[in-house]
Amino acid sequence: MSGPTKKPNLRRVGQPQPIQADALLGALPHPLLVIGEGLTIVYANTAAEDFFQMSAGVLCRRSLTDMVAFGSPLIALVEQVQRNGTTVNEYAVDLGSFRFEAPKLVDLYGGPVSEMPGRVLIMLQQRSMAQMIERQLTHRGAARSVSGLAAVLAHEIKNPLSGIRGAAQLLEAERTDSDRTLTQLICAESDRICKLVDRMEIFGDERPLQREPVNIHDVLDHVKQIALTGFARQIKFVENYDPSLPPVPGSRDKLIQVFLNLVKNAAEAIGEERADGQITLTTSFRPGVRLSVPGSQARVSLPLEIAVEDNGAGVPTDLMPHLFDPFITTKPSGTGLGLALVAKIIGDHGGIIECDSRPRFTVFRALMPMAESEASQGRQA
Ligand SMILES: Nc1ncnc2c1ncn2[C@@H]1O[C@H](COP(=O)(O)OP(=O)(O)OP(=O)(O)O)[C@@H](O)[C@H]1O
Ligand SMILES: [Mg+2]
């Protein structure tokens, strides 16, 4: 081991030492590009050289369209920033380039450069495939661990419970008012346990999914109606639908369950006292999103994205790694089965669910496959 090294002075009092912008940007671990008119690349940092496996000199003579496939979400993002002059973020997009053997899944951040009109700064943050697959598998594992237990509970609890409830009802008829309060309590509590067991029973349902083409906008509208007449009366709903989204192959009832759970959580995170609560329902078609299937060369395409966003308190950071596990709850009367159920149903549909959250912004995104017939009918998935 060498002894302590003297750190170089970055700034001397009264004489600020110029810091080379290039050196700073070169040290940044994320690829950074500046795009000029005609989509030409005018700047690339060291991480971008590594990412595209090309020197900055060569990169800067090229157009972005040479680097990524036609229709890549990256080009759409740059054009959007140029058009609107605002910052745009996109998550988990596949750059769709012929230059990469494996899919490059990235989060994209784009924004205008105020001192250089017409130029757009792009930062790419690479997502590891492992990160997405691991999450997907964890959700499925978690759901599976409940399923055996659920089957046992259904038999062993529901039957005696209905006996208890029936007996309480018989007693109720011939008792005084104060006794009646107690028998009603027995009935109400039995119903509560029964509901919990019903919910868990769904995990034990290993039957293959009956699929039909489901219009997801109908599903979301239905969920919104339920929410607005009940638990989300005070909340504003914003719809951001891609009207050309193809149908989702799946079970309408189960998908309603999924989005009802997500919207209910969103409403609960906003709380009843907030006046500016807002839930945004978004659907979009993202042909770029692909996932490797563990243990095989196959890649599944998950181009249908359905997102539920809220401006509530946000998911507590320590909860994040366990969010989709069963029995995880921060609510006094929550079962903590809502998101585990969501993960199971989405998994049964061949999709994945993920969450991004910070205070006043939480989004749950379900990425789903589209029907094979649709995919072969010209829609590129
Ligand atoms: N949109 C959200 N914003 C903030 N936190 C959330 C959100 N959705 C879920 N959570 C957190 O995740 C936990 C688990 O959610 P889940 O739906 O699984 O159970 P629950 O809502 O607590 O109970 P139940 O669904 O049975 O009513 C919640 O208790 C909450 O802390
Ligand atoms: Mg819930």
Task: Describe the overall structure.
By secondary structure, this protein is an alpha+beta fold. It has 3 domains: 102 residues, Beta-Lactamase, CATH 3.30.450.20; 61 residues; 165 residues, Histidine kinase-like ATPase, C-terminal domain (Heat Shock Protein 90). Helices cover 41% and strands 20% of the residues. Helix 8 crosses helix 9 and helix 9 runs antiparallel to helix 10. The N terminus is likely disordered. It binds adenosine-5'-triphosphate and magnesium ion (MG). Adenosine-5'-triphosphate binds next to helix 9 and helix 10.
Give the helices and strands, then pairings.
Blueprint: H1 21-27, E1 32-35, E2 41-44, H2 46-52, H3 56-59, H4 64-67, H5 73-84, E3 88-94, E4 105-112, E5 120-126, H6 129-173, H7 177-204, E6 212-214, H8 216-229, E7 236-240, E8 248-250, H9 252-270, E9 278-285, E10 290-292, E11 299-301, E12 304-310, H10 338-348, E13 352-358, E14 361-368, H11 372-376
Parallel strand pairs: 7-9
Antiparallel strand pairs: 1-2, 1-5, 3-4, 4-5, 6-8, 9-12, 10-11, 12-14, 13-14
The structure holds adenosine-5'-triphosphate and magnesium ion.
Adenosine-5'-triphosphate (ATP) is lined by residues 261, 265-266, 269, 310, 312-315, 319, 323, 328-331, 334-340, 362.
